[in-house]
Every structure is written in C-alpha cells, then in structure tokens.
Amino acid sequence: MRGTLMVRAFVALGALAVTLGVTQAQPFQLAFWNFNDSNEAADGGIFASSSSLQRIGGTTLEGYRAGSPLDSGTIGYNITTFPAQGQNNRTAGIQFNVPTTGYFGVVVMFDMRWSNTVSRFVRFQYTTDGTNWIDGDLLEADGGDRWWSQRNLTNPYGDTRYYANLGNAAANSPNFAFRLVAEFAPNTNQYFGARDNNAAGYRTTGTLRFDLVEVRAVPEPASVVALGMGLAGLLRLRRRTR
Prior knowledge:
Elements: H1 2-24, E1 28-33, E2 52-56, E3 60-66, E4 75-80, E5 93-97, E6 103-114, E7 121-127, E8 134-140, E9 146-147, E10 162-167, E11 177-183, E12 208-219, H2 221-240
Antiparallel strand pairs: 1-12, 2-5, 3-4, 4-12, 5-11, 6-9, 6-10, 6-12, 7-8, 7-11
C-alpha cells in the first residue's frame, strides 16, 4: 500500500513538473538569419536546414549591406525592384518559410530598414497552409534611411526589433511562413515614399533591408506530457521489479 502511494506521489509530482515546464518554458529558436555570411541560408535554429527565404513579386537582391544597429558592423539583406506606382499592391517583398511542427506560442522578430524612396508602408502577413495569407500589422516608416529598431520600442525579449506574437495561430504547421510586402498608403491606390510621405517620393528602386530575422516557439504541450507519462511508466516498472 505504501509503495502504491509513493508511485502515485511520483506521478503527481511528475505531472506538476510537466505543467510548470510548459507554462514557464523559454522559447526555442526555430530559425534565425543574420546574413553575416552573405548568403540566404538560415544561420541557426532547430529548423535551420528546412527553413528558407525568397524574394517575391519581382523584387531582386540589391546586395548585402551594413546590418542592424543592434548588431553593429554586421551584414543585412537588401532588396529592391518594387512595383510601378499604383500597381501590384501587397505582392512585392520578401518571404521567410519556417516550419513550426511540434511547437506552439510562435513569435516572429526582425529588424527592417526603409530607404528614402521605398514604400513607406509595409504589411506583415503570415500563412499556415502556404496559400492563404493573414494580415498582421501595417508597419510605417519613421522617415527614410531608418531601421525599425531605431524607434526604441522594446519588445518582451529586451531588444528593439519588430515583434509579432502569433501564439497558437501559427502553431504546429509544416507550411508556416511570413512575409513583408509593400502596400499602398491607407485609403489610396498609390505607394508613398518613406521619407517624403507622398506619392511623388516613391521609386521602384527604393530598398528594404532585413537583419536579425528570428522565429521562436515552445514545444507542444502534448510532447512534454508524453515525456511525463514515460517517466511515470518507468517509476511503475521499477516498483514491479523490486
């Protein structure tokens, strides 16, 4: 009887540890790009080898240029060749593909720099099926030749990158991706330039630059619970073999 109670106590403690582990777990890095090696491959993360980036809507690589102020002296990824004025709204930009299989509580972070003449407005979107895109924030430039991080808007991770908490909306998806695309100024059918904040200030040769692009998440509760159940099973087996 006493042995049975002890096993039950171990199981209960294991379940409590699992619960605390899930609720207090620090996110894992699923994919990360810092571009310091001047290529498009992810530079770190659990799913680095299965993650990718792509330019979309006709944009081209302008080059690898000076990186985020948060990572002084490093490299950023600069894209150009945006649509002609008044055309192809929310189609041109960059896309990052990162599976979130087995993870939930998805967080996206990055730093982005507007040139003077690129679209002042850039839409953050994400997908979980690779086809249908869900609108996130509309990001507006704070003048030209400026990084998002220079606004000093601190995120929960203690730096000033843009931060999007997608939670379980992007959980456990092999087809998760997010993108940043040029968008017309609100209530117009024209792109506005980042510096001048008018249609005349926009040029197709403007650039957007990206650095410190990261996706984080925590393991699905089911996987942690399975581990706890395995531990409980081992405890029972140990009891039987005494």
